[in-house]
Every structure is written in C-alpha cells, then in structure tokens.
C-alpha cells in the first residue's frame, strides 16, 4: 500500500441512487503546486474536490473517502451514463498541463490504481481521462499523460496493432465516448493520437474498433 496522508475536504456527498464507483477519472490540477490544489479542493467556497491528489514528488493525499461522492467530474457522460461523480473516483495529478508528468508521480499513481481497482472490481477499461467524459469542456490529463505506460501494467487500455475496419463513430460510442459532441474526435485523439490532424481517417477507425472489441467490461448494461 502506498503511504497516504489524510486531508479531509468538506466538499463531498453521498453517491446518488445507490450507485458505486465504476470508473476512475485521471485529472491534472492546472495549478502551480499540489498544496495550492489541495487547499482549493478543501475550500468550501470552491465546491470542487477529488478523492486523491498526487504531487510531483509522489506523495498521495486523500481528500474524500472512496465510498463518498467527490465533486470532480462535472457535466459530461460516459457510455451514455451521466452523473459521473456518483459513478467514479477522481485522482488529481499536480501538473499545469504544459509539461511532462514526473516519474515519482507516475510511480505513485501506479501503486494507487491497483488498490482502487481491486477494491471496486474495476478493469483497465474503467480508467479514463477527464477529457474522455467531458470533451471540449475539459482537456486533462492532456496529451503529455502516458496512457500507454499505464496500459502496459494493466492499469488502462491502449490499442494494439491488429488491423480492423469499421465505423469510427459506432466503435467510439461502443467504447464509451459521446460521439454526438462536436469535440469528441479531439478528445479521442488527445488520448490515442495527439499528433493527428484533419478529418476522421482509417487509423482513427482502426483504433476505435480495436478498443471496442477489447474483452474488458466497463459498466453494467
């Protein structure tokens, strides 16, 4: 178990309608320091919070108990489900979004995630970015976050190189994205093809199909 400091935030509530965590959302703080982020997430006037904050040096602070509903996701949906706060756990990584994530920070995340996934019976497909469920409104954790690294440890998903053809929108929707949102392709590429530009192409479709075809289950039907 990683060492975790407790700093209780007043910004939480009960999960609605008996819901339980079926997702883990990765965020970045977009603030100058982890302490500034923690202070803000613990400020009642902010009306925001997260379950955990991980600083650049790998120290983990817990703000909200996992059983409770932290206020980190906001408006958006995944797999057609809204009220993502009631369905998720939130991890904030101290990062402004314009520089790489520190090695100590990534190592701490890789120690924390397996514990959370085991407690709630979550598969790698349940670990997503804030931008995945709220395209356009949010861009974190951004193109500098190493999703492939997490996937190599079974802590997220990454497309393999197998050939596949199909409709991008259909496959991306099956994976979880709200393809009706005008910024959905941008969010998809920010995670899987941050260098790509232009209209949807065959590689976008191949990646989406391979993700949709993966054997991991995400949310109950």
* Annotated CATH topology of the largest domain: Lysozyme-like
Mean of pLDDT: 94
Q: Roughly how many Å apart are the termini?
A: 32 Å
* Percentage beta strand: 5-15%
H/E order of the elements?
Answer: EEEHEEEHEHEHHHHH
Could you provide a short overview of the structure?
Helices cover 31% and strands 13% of the residues. It contains eight helices and eight strands, in the order βββαβββαβαβααααα. Strands 1-5-4-7-3-8 form a six-stranded mixed beta sheet, sandwiched between helices. Strands 2-6 form a two-stranded antiparallel sheet.
What's the structural blueprint in terms of helices and strands?
Elements: E1 4-6, E2 12-13, E3 23-28, H1 34-41, E4 52-54, E5 60-62, E6 69-70, H2 84-87, E7 88-93, H3 103-120, E8 127-129, H4 130-133, H5 147-152, H6 168-175, H7 184-192, H8 202-213
Helix pairs in contact: 6-8
Any overview of this molecule?
It contains eight helices and eight strands; from the N terminus they run E-E-E-H-E-E-E-H-E-H-E-H-H-H-H-H. It is an alpha/beta fold. The protein folds into two domains: 154 residues, Peptidoglycan recognition protein-like (Lysozyme-like, 3-Layer(aba) Sandwich); 55 residues, no CATH class.
């Amino acid at each position: 178990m990683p060492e975790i400091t407790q700093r209780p935030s007043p910004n939480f509530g009960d999960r609605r309608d008996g819901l339980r965590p079926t997702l883990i959302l990765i965020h970045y703080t977009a603030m100058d320091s982890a302490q500034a982020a923690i202070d803000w997430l613990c400020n009642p006037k902010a009306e925001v919070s997260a379950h955990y904050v991980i600083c650049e040096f790998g120290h983990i602070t817990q703000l909200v108990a996992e059983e409770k509903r932290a206020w980190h996701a906001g408006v958006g949906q995944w797999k057609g489900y809204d009220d993502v706060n009631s369905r998720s756990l939130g991890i904030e990584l101290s990062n402004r979004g314009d520089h790489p994530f520190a090695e100590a920070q990534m190592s701490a995340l890789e120690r924390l995630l397996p514990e959370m996934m085991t407690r709630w019976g979550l598969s790698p497909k349940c670990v997503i970015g804030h931008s995945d469920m709220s395209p356009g409104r949010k861009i974190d954790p951004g193109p500098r976050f190493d999703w492939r690294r997490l996937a190599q440890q079974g802590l997220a998903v990454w497309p393999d190189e197998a050939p596949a053809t199909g409709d991008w929108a259909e496959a991306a929707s099956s994976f979880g994205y709200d393809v009706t949102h005008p910024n959905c392709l941008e969010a998809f590429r920010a995670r899987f093809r941050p260098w790509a530009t232009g209209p949807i192409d065959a590689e976008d479709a191949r990646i989406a199909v391979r993700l949709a075809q993966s054997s991991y289950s995400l949310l109950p039907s």
